[in-house]
Design goal:
With 442 residues, the protein is an alpha/beta fold. It has 16 helices and 16 strands.
Length: 442
């Protein structure tokens, strides 16, 4: 059996709700995909592809044999939150799958999602209780995937952990940025509940630096972990930026997520009946497209200054590297249009003035620099403009000391959920080593 092409619910039905767009694969489909993995010689997916170093061939072998508990035990030994990565990870592992050399890669992400959902359904997923009680207390500032990962690992090591989160619920961008149609929020709550049952405290609606100070935390905890992400979105400071219909993407997405969850009743920004322009061609832009269509946008256009990638893997990114190629999300398939090589020049009351750009490529097809094309100016009508150009790597608060650690996007800059979890695990080891050294010094 080859890779399954159609994995989404019909467009006509999924545009009517905010439920996850992916359908559940059948037992037969899962078994067939898992068996495809067993022909592998050298598993590049494990060491080269996955930042968490998930032992993918062994996991899939267990699935193929129907040993779901074993599959869960192997998966959860390296991945603290496979229910997140099984939904929103771009699947770096699949890009280095050996099946992908001559055909399509194994559906590793969907298999991961099936393992974790089976674990919850059958009761395999249980709180990770502390192995001991060290008596040390750790404060984690930020309840996103990195903060959650470091908290879970440190709690397991026996330290008492409190997570401080400025929003009403933990999860960071998993909870407030990523739309429910990609990650339903009960999935996040389910994990937070497990962590609470394991003894981790969550202090939500508490903004460190405003409600309490970092110095206050340092006096009351033995170690402090900063995991605040990269909260500052990248702006586009061109004429007309101050117009009231130009907004950051995250403000738009967070508003919809809060309405879906019942945290608020009215949308602060709505695309209903409007012509929407989304500036930025990444995942956040795609999320804006899907959300706009569900809100009832009249039309949605996504602008990207980069050139349109090739349909197939570019020679600039040979296997097993992450391929440079055209990616079409579920949201793109729901009715939006994409324009490439477009530079935004001015926001007006009626839309966006733009200019076309021309790119220069390396011999193997990698874009390196661009120039504007004279006489290519144009205008796109828009009633709502959403800026989805990523986030600025703002430095964490200036707190120094051997008891202060920084992890996730706050340390590395904007990255993937899987890398945030990986860094959380890494920093947890460093914090533990520091606390053990303090214990030995006593």
């Amino acid at each position: 059996m080859m890779r399954i092409k159609e994995i989404y619910r019909p467009v006509s039905s999924r545009l009517q709700d905010y439920s996850e767009v992916e359908r559940n694969l059948t037992a037969s489909e899962l078994n067939s995909q898992a068996k495809r993995c067993q022909d592998c010689g050298i598993p590049f997916c494990h060491g080269r592809g996955c930042p968490l170093e998930n032992v993918i061939p062994e996991i899939n072998a267990a699935v193929a044999a129907g040993e779901w508990k074993l599959a869960w035990d192997i998966l959860s030994s390296t991945n603290d939150f496979p229910e997140f990565t099984g939904r929103v990870c771009p699947a770096l592992c699949e890009a280095s799958c050996t099946q992908g050399i001559n055909t399509d890669p194994v559906m590793i992400r969907q298999l991961e999602k099936a393992v974790v959902e089976t674990a919850f359904e059958q009761g395999f997923a249980q709180p990770l209780m502390p192995l001991c009680d060290t008596g040390f207390r750790v404060a984690v500032v930020g309840g996103g995937p990195a903060g959650m990962a470091v908290a879970q690992r440190l709690n397991r090591m026996g330290h008492k952990v409190t997570v401080f989160e400025k929003n009403a619920e933990a999860g960071g961008l998993l909870r407030y940025g990523i739309p429910d149609f990609k990650l339903e929020k009960q999935i996040v709550r389910r994990r937070v509940d497990l962590m609470k049952r394991a003894g981790i405290r969550f202090e939500c609606n508490t903004e460190v630096g405003k409600d309490i100070t970092l110095e206050y935390l340092r006096k009351r905890y033995d170690a402090l972990v900063i995991a605040i992400g990269t909260p500052q979105p990248r702006d586009l400071n061109i004429p007309g930026r101050e117009l009231p219909h130009v907004h950051f993407a995250l403000d738009f997405l967070c508003g919809q997520n809060r309405v879906v969850s019942g945290e608020q009743t009215e949308l602060p920004i709505s695309a209903a009946g409007k012509r929407v322009v989304v500036i930025g061609g990444g995942d956040t832009g795609s999320d804006c497209v899907g959300t706009s269509l569900r809100q009832g946008a009249k039309a949605v256009v996504q602008l990207e200054i980069m050139p349109q990638p090739p349909e197939n893997r570019s020679g600039s990114t040979p296997w097993p590297d992450w391929p440079y190629l055209l990616r079409t999300s579920s949201s793109h398939k729901e009715g939006a249009s994409r324009l490439w090589c477009v530079g935004s020049k001015r926001f007006t009351e009626t839309g966006v003035d733009y200019v076309k750009v021309e790119w220069e490529f390396t011999p193997n097809g990698k874009p390196v620099k661009f120039k504007e094309i004279p006489g290519s100016e144009g205008h796109i009508d828009a009633d709502l403009v959403l800026l989805a150009m990523g986030f600025v790597n703002t430095p964490p608060p200036e707190v120094r000391g051997e008891d202060v650690f920084v992890c996730g996007d706050a340390a590395t800059g904007q990255s993937l959920v899987v890398r945030a979890i990986t860094d959380g695990r890494r920093v947890a080891e460093r914090v533990n080593e520091y606390l053990i050294s303090r214990s030995n010094d006593k």
